[in-house]
């Protein structure tokens, strides 16, 4: 593979893994397994039937979990500890033929990119879940699935075009992430105020307080 192709595949896998790890692995394995592309030696394991079966099954589970408000946030929370390290490992595996120093660089950059895409997805979903209708959630989830498949495919087929698109996406993410974070903080503050708010006193409570006050005054 040419250097541009290697870089595109490495960063494409890292970005896609932060959104939907299982779809990224399945698409990678499928493209490598059907002979369309020759994967780097370190990533050829992704085309093994057992790996593809596991990735396909977990994608099937995530496909439905990711479209249920509340469940998707719980799923994203758990996968904070899965997507980011896996994205870093896949990014490093893509550049294995370039040497150990390239693997370390890809591991660091890939982990950072996976973390950024995961944070954008998870934070955006928290805000989307405030909408009472399910259409927005389903639309976002399907758009994410399409983006993951398209990114892995384009990184392998059109690496130069993918790298240009990735730079644009990174600029958009850099603009979005602070605003998503502010929205999540605002939502958390409102929820904390809602649950910590002192409930109104009932009629019986007011009556008991009044009687106690009268007894104290009479004494």
TrEMBL record:
The chain crosses the membrane at residues 12-31, 156-177. Keywords: Membrane, Transmembrane, Transmembrane helix. Residues 7-178 form the DUF4126 domain. This is Transmembrane protein. It comes from hydrothermal vent metagenome.
